[in-house]
């Protein structure tokens, strides 16, 4: 009796069909995974926004961008104790255990605070980001390690391009020793950014605060020209300004700008608690002039700039 078997041609056809199906299904699977990651990132920012609002309800102001107990000199080597907005809202993120382990009277980099500063918190990391699960070394501008710390995918807004992250004050809600109240947000809470994405893969930020004398280094996937600045000053570890979003040509590496690993833009939580997606603003126009999108983006970073925001400014 003859047995029926696959011929070589039939086997190759089956393999080709399977390969075609995999090729068709893989993008759909990847798209579904990214949609889930975007949803989680959006939820992280919603939690952060609500925590900041609850902090305001109790303390009658939003937390400082970062705290400093020494006189302002340059905003780079005078950030002690340096604890940032993320540390101050821990109790409102159901992270009471983490909050109680912080000695706010000691600097972020103090050995007594090492365990909590090195603790990664999921709410501060976007799943699409390339942030490491383990703590990474935060160093000074000479490359000398200062302290290991857990990564963050989010930064608080100090203002538009007129506000440098190392300034003594800012036009946004968060800056050095800030304590902004709702009443001071005269531009409207629905058009003023609290916190946005700043991918660790682009700029190696942390959630704990601004370590005095430390720098924010370029992330492994930073798309800006390598010939520019290789680091941002200490406040860049927790702050960013609204100039560019997903910078690709900024000479300072986009280290003080917002960014994400999502396609086409980044998520932001506003002072009213809403989370919205703003498209990429990768560079300025001819001669360094601001583009229309950059001007709108900068206006969203200020708390009292009295700018007019178009009705279709975000998705």
Question: What's the short story on this structure?
Answer:
The chain is α+β, with helices and mostly antiparallel strands and 315 residues long. Helices cover 24% and strands 17% of the residues. The chain has one domain.
What does this structure look like?
This protein is an alpha+beta fold. The protein is 24% helix and 17% strand. The protein has helices at 8-59, 85-88, 96-100, 114-117, 292-301, and strands at residues 66-68, 81-84, 136-139, 145-149, 154-160, 193-197, 215-217, 231-233, 239-245, 257-258, 265-270, 275-279. The strands form 4 sheets. Strands 10-9-5-6-11-12 form a 6-stranded mixed beta sheet. A two-stranded antiparallel sheet has the order 1-2. It has a two-stranded antiparallel sheet with strand order 3-4. The termini are far apart.
Please describe the topology of this protein.
Layout lengths: L7 H52 L6 E3 L12 E4 H4 L7 H5 L13 H4 L18 E4 L5 E5 L4 E7 L32 E5 L17 E3 L13 E3 L5 E7 L11 E2 L6 E6 L4 E5 L12 H10 L14
Parallel strand pairs: 5-9, 9-10
Antiparallel strand pairs: 1-2, 3-4, 5-6, 6-11, 7-8, 11-12
């Amino acid at each position: 009796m003859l047995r029926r078997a696959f011929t070589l041609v039939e086997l190759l056809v089956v393999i080709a069909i399977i390969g075609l199906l995999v090729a068709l299904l893989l993008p759909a699977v990847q798209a579904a995974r990214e949609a889930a990651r975007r949803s989680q990132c959006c939820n992280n920012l919603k939690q952060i926004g609500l925590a900041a609002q609850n902090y305001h309800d109790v303390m009658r102001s939003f937390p400082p961008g970062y705290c400093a107990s020494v006189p302002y000199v340059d905003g780079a080597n005078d950030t002690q104790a340096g604890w940032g907005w993320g540390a101050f809202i821990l109790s409102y993120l159901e992270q009471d255990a983490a909050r109680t382990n912080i000695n706010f009277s000691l600097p972020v980099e103090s050995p007594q605070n090492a365990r909590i500063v090195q603790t990664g918190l999921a709410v501060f990391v976007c799943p699409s980001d390339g942030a490491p699960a383990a703590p990474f070394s935060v160093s000074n501008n000479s490359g000398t390690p200062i302290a290991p710390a857990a990564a963050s995918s989010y930064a608080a807004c100090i203002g538009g391009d007129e506000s440098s992250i190392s300034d003594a004050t800012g036009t946004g809600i968060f800056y050095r020793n800030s304590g902004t109240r709702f009443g001071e947000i005269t531009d409207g809470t629905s058009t003023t950014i609290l916190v946005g994405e700043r991918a660790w893969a682009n700029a190696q930020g942390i959630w704990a605060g601004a370590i005095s004398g430390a720098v924010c280094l370029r992330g492994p996937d930073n798309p800006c020209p390598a010939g520019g600045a290789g680091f941002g000053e200490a406040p860049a570890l927790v702050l960013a300004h609204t100039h560019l979003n997903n910078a690709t040509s900024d000479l300072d590496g986009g280290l003080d700008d917002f960014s994400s690993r999502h396609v086409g833009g980044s998520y932001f939580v506003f002072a009213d608690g809403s989370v919205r997606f703003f498209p990429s603003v990768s560079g300025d126009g001819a001669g360094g002039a601001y583009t229309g999108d950059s001007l709108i983006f900068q206006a969203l970073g200020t708390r009292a700039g009295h700018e007019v925001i178009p009705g279709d400014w975000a998705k």
